[in-house]
Amino acid sequence: INYQTARFEASYGTVAQLPEPATPEVAVTGRSNVGKSSLLNRVFSRKDLVKVSSTPGKTANINFFSVDGIRFVDLPGYGFAKVSKAEKRRWADLISGYFDQERSFNLVIALVDIRHEAQQLDLDMIGFLQQSELPFVVALTKADKIGRSKQNQQVATLTRQLGVEREQVVVTSSATGEGIDGLRRRIAAACL
Ligand code: GDP
């Protein structure tokens, strides 16, 4: 996959607007502020193709990126507390509306912050992916923020809490680049 070709395709505020799936799709999901924009930029080897928001939870859109014939779907970050109930509803509808469509779900990358216990919304998301039998990988983010032994401890804890296999988990850091190649290998395996 030639990540040099990464470009922004379009942004959608409702699922009804989404174009038909014509290419393999990789969807990326996680709590707001989990590090989704930073990770995507790292995967794309681009500094700021995906806007890293200083205000978490600001993007309530589904953003499409196209990379060498593969479409990356950046789903709105969930769980941001400081928005209205109506806005939360809209985000939830966007995410579930996307997954309800007939699309080519080659891979879902579910981001979870390595530093914390699994949050209810993360459990809900992973549970949904398992129930729907969608192919997914859990990317634990911000690994550089804790030491190696704490990382190993958190991998064990989160793997158990989320009910996933160790092979489904990739430890990542957008600060150091750890795990980015591993993630790219999963993407290639799922799409090529
Ligand atoms: P998003 O809301 O999920 O798109 O998260 P962002 O990518 O905007 O990141 C949220 C905050 O976490 C920003 O201040 C980032 O600089 C920071 N951040 C994201 N990834 C990492 C990481 O791997 N390591 C460190 N140290 N900080 C990160």
Automatic annotation (TrEMBL):
Pfam hit, one: MMR_HSR1
Keywords assigned: Cell cycle, Cell division, GTP-binding, Magnesium, Metal-binding, Nucleotide-binding, Septation
Organism of origin: Thermophilibacter immobilis
Alphabetized PROSITE patterns for the sequence: G_ENGB (PS51706)
Annotated PANTHER family: ENGB-TYPE G DOMAIN-CONTAINING PROTEIN, MSS1/TRME-RELATED GTP-BINDING PROTEIN
Function per UniProt: Necessary for normal cell division and for the maintenance of normal septation.
Lineage, broadest ranks: Bacteria, Bacillati, Actinomycetota, Coriobacteriia, Coriobacteriales
Segments passing through the bilayer: none
Family matches, as InterPro entries: G_ENGB_dom (IPR030393), GTP-bd (IPR006073), GTP-bd_ribosome_bio_YsxC (IPR019987), P-loop_NTPase (IPR027417), Small_GTP-bd (IPR005225)
Residue ranges occupied by any EngB-type G domain in the UniProt entry: 22-192
Needed co-factor(s): Mg(2+)
Any GO BP: division septum assembly
Any one of the GO CC terms: cytosol
The protein's name: Probable GTP-binding protein EngB
Family indicated by similarity: Belongs to the TRAFAC class TrmE-Era-EngA-EngB-Septin-like GTPase superfamily. EngB GTPase family.
Entry superkingdom: Bacteria
GO MF annotation, one: metal ion binding
